[in-house]
Write a structure and sequence with these properties.
The protein is an alpha/beta fold. Helices cover 38% and strands 16% of the residues. Bound molecules: pyridoxal-5'-phosphate (PLP).
């Protein structure tokens, strides 16, 4: 069988019937770009309910790093479900949670002893980080970055600033949040050179936020995505993170790295912070940690996680089945999958950069490992955003059998399972090129 293989019109009859039912019963707030209805998956290959076979370049929004239903993860889950499904780590003890706290503590780029708090999702990992920062520092204010995505519950939503639709209708937001421009080398908001964007962003925090708006000794934390995810897979210069670390240390402000999307091997290192030599005080983890089972973890310096019993907890957080999946996921990632992300990611990046030479619609290719963003522009000088063209490329790739998602206003994110092979990466790029040709030929 060749992969991908599209056998029916899309959606096929079974998919269409399920989507019709979904449209009457499921929340209309979800943003489905195309009618893919999952039946099963293995590695980087997924099949829909009509038997159409796709290559997955989205991994359930950067979640299934070990690939769909990796046998080691599935076996760990099965073994755990036969023992017990739930006990609640807030009131009782169970070893998988302790073991995971030890293992993840040894992996995060936080120096010294750590502790782990368990939730169920990325937004909960950030809620815990925000609460912990306020509790520990006895300060209330938080600084986040424009274009960031930290979740949708009311605490993390106040930090999220990637698309207005995510905030519209839900105000007033949690007070005490200030936003600074992210150091985006391609779209430097200060019109400085790519290298100078780190300097400009830090100066904005120092000279404007911390001078004109809020005293540094009232700021609990700065929350940053080491590589911005939903905002467009933006890679800042290393100087940005180094200056941020120096600034926070100077003022006793905690530095929270939101590694929900960039962590767990996605960038070819276990955590994206490692690419920049960044040593945060708190790290938020979710998505790829348990290969698809719900789990969020907030790991912090042991002296920072000093809240008292009863201060924070979650009934389901750190569920034993999710912990078992996470322990197996970590083993699989360490046994060559993170390395594979670096190798196949470099290959993919090379091929995408070659396409940039030939297609003016591609303004920028950036990323690390298998977290790669391609930004589309109508004009390389003015950088006019090619949003409709990006949306059409997503559709054209779906029609040809590749699942991919946009990021930011006009970028495409290549975020496949980290077990993707070089051959599969080549097929994705070939189909991407076909989509580019289709969209470029049909302009206007
Ligand atoms: C960087 C980042 N933080 C937090 C979240 C929120 O995670 P969740 O959807 O699991 O709440 C996301 C989700 O996309 C994310 O990319």
């Amino acid at each position: 069988m060749s992969i991908p293989e599209i056998k029916t019109a899309l959606p096929g009859p079974k998919a269409a019937a399920i989507i019709a039912r979904d449209s009457k019963s499921v929340s209309p707030s979800y943003t489905r770009d195309y009618p893919f209805v999952m039946a099963k998956g293995q590695g980087a290959v997924v099949e829909d309910v009509d038997g159409n076979v796709f290559l997955d370049c989205a991994a359930g929004i950067a979640v299934t790093g070990t690939g769909h239903s990796h046998p080691d993860v599935v076996n760990a889950i099965i073994s755990q479900v036969h023992k017990y499904l739930h006990m609640s780590g807030t009131d009782f003890y169970y070893e998988p949670q302790v073991e995971l706290a030890e293992k993840i503590g040894a992996l995060v780029p936080i120096p010294g002893p750590t502790r782990a708090f368990f939730g169920n999702s990325g937004t909960e990992a950030n809620e815990a980080a925000i609460k912990m920062a306020r509790y520990h520092t006895k300060r209330v204010n938080i600084i986040a970055f424009l274009g960031s995505f930290h979740g949708r519950t009311l605490g993390s939503l106040a930090l999220t600033s990637s698309r207005a639709v995510q905030r519209t209708g839900f105000g007033p937001m949690m007070p005490g949040v200030f936003h600074a421009p992210y150091a985006n080398p391609y779209r430097n908001p200060f019109n400085a050179s790519p290298d100078a964007c780190a300097e400009a962003s830090i100066s904005y925090i120092e000279d404007q936020i911390l001078t004109q708006l809020v005293s540094p000794d009232e700021v609990a934390a700065i929350v940053v995505e080491p590589i911005q995810g939903e905002g467009g897979y933006v890679v800042p210069p290393a100087a940005f993170h180094q200056r941020l670390r120096a600034l926070t240390s100077k003022h006793g402000i905690l530095l929270i790295a939101d590694e929900v999307q960039s962590g767990m091997g996605r960038t070819g290192k276990m955590f994206a912070s490692e690419h920049f030599g960044l040593e945060p005080d708190i790290v938020s983890i979710a998505k790829g940690i348990a290969s698809g089972l719900p789990l969020g973890i907030t790991v912090a310096r042991a002296d920072v996680m000093d809240w008292k019993p009863g201060a924070h907890a979650s009934t389901f957080g750190g569920n034993p089945v999710s912990c078992a999946a996470a322990l197996a996921t970590i083993n699989v990632l360490k046994s060559g999958v993170v390395k594979n992300a670096a190798i196949v990611g470099a290959h993919l990046m090379g091929r995408l950069n070659a396409l940039k030479e030939r297609y003016a619609l591609i303004g920028d290719v950036r990323g690390r490992g298998l977290m790669i963003g391609v930004e589309f522009v109508r004009n390389r000088v003015t950088k006019e955003r090619a949003t409709t063209e990006r949306d059409r490329i997503v559709q054209e790739m779906f029609k040809r059998g590749v699942l991919i998602l946009g990021a930011g206003r006009n970028a495409l994110r290549f975020a496949p399972p980290l077990v993707l092979t070089t051959d599969q990466a080549d097929v994705i790029v070939d189909i991407f090129e076909q989509a580019l040709v289709a969209v470029t030929n049909n302009q206007g």
